[in-house]
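Figure 6 in text form: structure in, sequence out.
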């Protein structure tokens, strides 16, 4: 059994290749039972959605930390620099020593299940580690992001205080379904009896599915634009603000550093969550939390000369939000893109959305079992000014070299790709 972080990392990489994504809750429930069900007895806010999960979680976390006096745990995926990022208490990542100790605790049970032919996946192991670690640390609340989907997602063994569904778009259609309604049904699988549901999904077809599930299990349902509202949006190149209302509660001119209208929507979901879930939350904590929240890899400016932005847009809805944000905050600039993607994403549509707004698209690839090769991506693009540079470091270096005044270099397409890029550019190191 692995005894160092490098060995654990290699174990997880091998595990991902060997078992991949294998949905269902039976293995997770078996593993947790062997551990003594550490997930029971904790307080959860559960977050699902096609986009916006991580940002919404971070807004909630910053608000609760600003309120003070408690241990706010979070479980997120994927990581950008190192595995420890995925398990945090307040602003602190799990230490290497604790990560190794919790992993080794699971070791005998993993081996036992492997021998029985129902070995847990990489994500199931990591999720079980989160439950065990947070239970030992006696945290006050756990903010838990689904990995993929909801109904059969590994995290869906919990009974939450509150469920949040941030957005619905066509993604992972081979797993979640071919229509927005089918995908909404999978995401709505996190809704539990008596636990409030906060939704940012306004399109009628998926919204009806979510509301019907909430009604069926007796879960109070709150919809943006109906039960809580945002208004008075103001934007500049580096900041934006909005006003929020829920019932007789109104908070005006909430300032934030994260950019894009989608981030205002995510912040509104977070504010609704804390107001509904908590008996009392100070308005100052809400303002401070929203203002201080940041989420690496989401419209993240990492250089001014040349202007370089990293964005984890990994599906067509994410690319659409990226383009909209560029047009609002950098309307007089031209946009040069470095793009790479997983092969199981709708990269053809993502490229089409970029092409109508791109000065140039530099297409590249990275090493991952799910990554699309650059030649395939290149052939899927019909842009007049496209270029193929297989080595992604060279692609970024060339993109930076060519980006001039009133131009932005945008690196996008996959959060896993951005994890490599951030290390290469020494961002956050």
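Output sequence:
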């Amino acid at each position: 059994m692995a005894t160092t972080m490098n060995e654990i990392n290699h174990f997880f990489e091998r595990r991902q290749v060997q078992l991949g994504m294998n949905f269902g809750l039976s293995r997770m429930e078996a593993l947790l039972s062997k551990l003594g069900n550490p997930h029971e007895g904790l307080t959860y806010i559960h977050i699902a959605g096609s986009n916006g999960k991580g940002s919404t979680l971070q807004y909630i976390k910053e608000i609760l930390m600003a309120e003070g006096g408690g241990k706010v745990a979070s479980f997120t995926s994927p990581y950008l620099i190192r595995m420890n990022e995925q398990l945090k208490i307040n602003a602190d990542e799990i230490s290497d020593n604790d990560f190794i100790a919790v992993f080794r605790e699971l070791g005998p049970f993993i081996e036992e299940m492997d021998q029985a032919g129902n070995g847990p996946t990489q994500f199931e192991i990591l999720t079980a580690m989160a439950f065990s670690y947070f239970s030992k640390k006696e945290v006050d609340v756990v903010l838990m992001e689904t990995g993929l989907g909801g109904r059969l997602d590994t995290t869906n063994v919990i009974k939450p205080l509150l469920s949040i569904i941030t957005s619905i778009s066509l993604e992972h259609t081979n797993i979640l379904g071919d229509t927005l309604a089918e995908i909404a049904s999978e995401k709505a699988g996190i809704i539990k009896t008596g636990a409030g549901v906060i939704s940012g999904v306004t399109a009628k077809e998926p919204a009806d599915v979510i509301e019907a599930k909430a009604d069926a299990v007796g879960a109070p349902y709150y919809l943006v634009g109906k039960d809580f509202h945002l208004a008075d949006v103001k934007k500049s190149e580096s900041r934006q603000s909005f006003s929020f209302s829920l019932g007789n509660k109104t908070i005006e001119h909430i300032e934030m550093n994260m950019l894009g209208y989608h981030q205002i929507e995510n912040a509104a979901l977070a504010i609704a969550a804390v107001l509904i879930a908590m008996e009392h939350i100070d308005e100052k904590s809400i303002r401070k939390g929203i203002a201080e929240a940041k989420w690496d890899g989401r419209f993240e400016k990492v250089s001014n000369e040349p202007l370089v932005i990293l964005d984890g847009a990994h599906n067509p809805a994410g690319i659409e939000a990226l383009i909209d944000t560029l047009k609002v905050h950098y309307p007089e600039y031209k946009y040069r893109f470095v793009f790479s993607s997983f092969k199981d994403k709708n990269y053809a549509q993502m490229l089409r959305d970029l092409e109508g707004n791109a000065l140039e698209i530099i297409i590249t690839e990275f090493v991952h079992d799910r990554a699309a090769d650059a030649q395939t991506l290149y052939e899927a693009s019909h842009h007049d000014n496209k270029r193929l540079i297989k080595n992604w470091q060279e692609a970024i270096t060339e993109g930076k070299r060519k980006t001039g005044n009133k131009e932005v270099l945008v690196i996008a397409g996959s959060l896993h790709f951005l994890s490599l890029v951030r290390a290469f550019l020494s961002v956050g190191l």
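Caption detail: The domain at 300-424 is CATH 3.90.190.20 (Protein-Tyrosine Phosphatase; Chain A).
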